[in-house]
Specification:
By secondary structure, the chain is of the alpha/beta class. The protein has helices spanning 23-37, 53-69, 77-81, 90-104, 119-130; strands at 42-46, 73-75, 109-113, 135-138, 144-145.
Length: 147
């Protein structure tokens, strides 16, 4: 029996080459890819960001790496937005909070690093509760616990 190995960089279109819908082929290819690479839920991660930004960026990277090792896809927008927005600029900060709330509606769960929760983190956690998203809490060793 031949096994079809799929390239993880392939993007499957739900349409055929003529542009018509091809849901059966799309679902089949998506199922093959999921069988080969497994299901990986999108999780919104909350490590602290302000107060020691350089150290917190490293912490966020480690927390995201931990999520990947647990077969999740981490979403940490504060890492991305810090590349081109100024957290000290009130207008930028307001936009970051707004876009964070938009992104928070996409993942299946939220992960919170609890060693030190900043004001912004507490607001996002409150929003996650409002959206009825499952929330997992992690200690300094990235061990999950129930608060």
């Amino acid at each position: 029996m031949n096994t079809l190995l799929l390239d993880p960089e392939l993007d499957f279109s739900p349409r055929n080459t003529e542009g018509s819908p091809a849901p059966t082929a799309y679902e089949a290819l998506t199922s093959l890819q999921r069988a080969q690479y497994g299901y990986r839920p999108l999780v919104y991660v909350y490590p602290p960001y302000s107060d020691g930004i350089a150290a917190n960026v490293e912490l966020a990277r480690a927390f995201c790496a931990h999520a990947v090792t647990r077969r999740n896809i981490p979403l940490a927008p504060h890492l991305y937005y810090s590349l081109f927005m100024d957290d000290n600029d009130p207008a930028d900060r307001k936009l970051v909070v707004f876009t964070g709330r938009i992104l928070l509606s996409r993942p299946e769960a939220t992960w919170v690093y609890t060693d030190r929760a900043a004001v912004g983190m507490r607001a996002e956690i409150s929003w996650a509760h409002h959206l009825d998203l499952p929330i997992k809490y992690f200690d300094v060793d990235f061990e999950e616990f129930t608060p």
